[in-house]
Amino acid sequence: MTETEMDTTTRNTNAEEILRVSGLSTRFFTQEGQVNAVSDLDLRIERGEVFGIVGESGSGKSVTARSLMDLIEPPGEITEGKIEYNDPDLADAVRDDYPQAVDGEYVDLLEVPADVRESLRGTSFSMIFQDPESSFNPTLTVGEQLAEAVEVQRRASARPRSTRAKTQDYTLASFALSTVLPSREYVSEESRERAIELLEMVGIPDPVERADEYPHEYSGGMLQRAMIAQALAGEPDVLVADEPTTALDVTIQAQILDLLAEIQEETGMTIVLITHNLGVIARMCDRVGVMYAGEIVERGTLEDVFDDHVHPYTEGLLGSIPDLEGARGRLQPIPGNVPSLLDSEMEDRCYFADRCPNAMEDCLDHPPEYDADGSADHEVRCVLAERDYEESRALPEGYFGETERPAADKHADPDRTEEDVQPERAEQPVDDSGGDRL
Amino acid sequence: MSSDLSDATGAETADAASDADGEQPLVRVEGLEKYFWENDSLIDRLLGDEPVAVRAVDGVSFDIHEGETLGLVGESGCGKSTTGETLLRLQEPTNGRVEFDGENVYDLDGSELTDFRRSAQVVFQDPFSSLDPRMTIGDIVQQPLDVHDVGTEAEREERVRDLLERVGLSVDQLDRFPHEFSGGQRQRIGIARALALDPEFLVLDEPTSALDVSVQAQVLNLLDDLQTEFDLTYLLISHDLSVIRHICDRVAVMYLGEIVEVGPADDLFEDPRHPYTQALLESVPRASTAEQDRDIETLSGDVPSPRDPPSGCRFRTRCPKVIPPADLEIEQADFRELMDLRERIERRDVSLETVGEDGRFEFEDGSVPERDVSAFVTALKDRLLDRDLPAEHDAVVEEALTELATSNWDAAAETLRAEYQSVCERENPPLETPASWAGADVDSSEGEDHPVACHLYAESTRSAPEPDP
What we know:
Chain A has 438 residues and is an alpha/beta fold. Chain A is built from 15 helices and 13 strands. Chain B has 469 residues and is an alpha/beta fold.
């Protein structure tokens, strides 16, 4: 306990922000209209911490992760904002060509060309995905795929800031040649050995034999370990873990979380952990951001968010979890559903107001982030941080339509007509975003 | 929130308990087995391949009393959903018997079977694939009424309206299609459909695992209310221990096709007896700030395959409390290490060719040359063991590994077996209430039934069971 406190204080005094995200907006331009998956998002991630992002399906947490990794694909687009990455070497390298992107030691990744961003993948940023079974190529052995990742990083570091090494060295012709000429093999012996080392590092028994097996011969937990190994191939500074344990059983989940914590401790890597599971957040994270409708509605240290939370959504989320240890009572669910993120349906108000038990007239204006009690990091996007709830200013019941029926998942939009009723899930832009379907 | 409701649940629990004393249970499952067969096609037979049994459910027995909720919990692949489907006769059993209201479900036919189908219903896990996308929700909920020819057309429609209102949907949505609803709403439709025929018994197969946590809470509350209102009996199948804890009166824990522990929910969660239950509970991360200071001893390894389950107690390959032979002085962690080593040697799951660093040992006709044997043994031991064992056990291990230098797997396995055979691998422990335990622990068990399938609680193996940490 005291040790953790010490860690926290040392971290806070010489905290260095490795990643500064400001005003990030990611939108998807779909047939139904513009979807504001992430709007005006700010993040400060310190070197060596585990930062958690928690939210329900459709809250924009996976899109945030993909935006950081520059993995947004059409019809999605990062429309605004800065993603500044602290790397003096990179800053020096790009200062002459892109002066507008550099600010001291920080480089705005959205201002540099795509190939520079791409060259950072693996060596600076790496990602692990939710579903290990579909993230591996079933036709190649696990060892080969890991060796490939190692090889890519090796070649990339031989020629920094170039993506040639990754994309153009190996063609179909070289593949054909590699079957006859051993010298043309894409994966070198060193890479293969490094792959085996990585497998050993993530706790796979008999890495030598296991490297020659195919993904289907691995269990889910082992594959997730292998994916972590692959992500570590380039010794990244920042690891983005998108629902890394959602597809796993609890006993395996515990193993994987232990492994991530161990690796983090050994390498001092920064982890951005995305999950819908508040227990996982509590186990792993130093600081947390709670996402709702594309925004971070509350952020702060673990204690701020779990014990001193201000936002009624955080309260609702914590109240919805059945307690494993306590007595049984009735759960306190949040009425209604995650809102639509279609631009045409998002009004300029607090997006949670229609489900909020404490909605007041003030909530009809979109709230800025207020400082809240607790640690210096504690910020909340809710007027309750500034003033207490007043009965007299409360919005009349049914203000947003049929929300007064607590049991119904009614879509709370007064202007909604029969025709434009869309299933909430179908509106989610990223089809594999949900961590909640298991 | 509403104290009267929780009181009502409390009263029901008491009822269920009194049922347990006298009346017969609503559902009684005895020795239920369901095997699936692999390599069982005509071609396989012509080629002479032996069919392989996948023992999804392997001898499961439990009772469900009227008005109670029994939770069936376990990891994926442990057979909990198959149990639910088989006891509803959605799958034909390989063996065993299920009594519903005193009648054997598998003997029913004709109108008796129809009656059973009416009174036992199911809610499936995935609300996205369990509703017909081409039917309106009105038709979906009405379909069971049509199939069983209940009432007149007008009465059926009236009933559908009542049901939809009851599960929290509005009646003007009758003509909509499933894709127009969110996951939580679809699960409500599935529940309304299951309630259409006024059943007594519902199997809820992971009813909330596809839902977000806030919507899950709504559905759990709904299920709670419906149980009180319609006197329903639930079998709740879930992998989520906190959901189980929240709504179940009694809980059965499954591991690899078998039930390892059954008990009243509070008792089982506060005082888990089986090492598997203990590990399972310990593994769940709690949503509280104290979580990071909680030490978890994670289970090593994966669940073994149900095609070839371990002999004796099926959990023994991962159990941190596996029992050493009575006359052996050994630390628990060392014994666990030795058992893992034995397991691998018995499964021949060690590649001898790759032992050692760069200069690998030469294998000629499956043997390492005489001069290299001791180096080979050291290298192999280094690779297989993470701990240093006490000298006497070290000697046994070296003896066994020396056999491996000549690829003599059977002799190596036999050497270790002779020394370290555990009661856990010889006998499958029966599911029974430990007599000594029930007496010693009156407080938490209150005389209620809490059987456990583990040798730790058998009289003969150990004088006293280890208390929980």
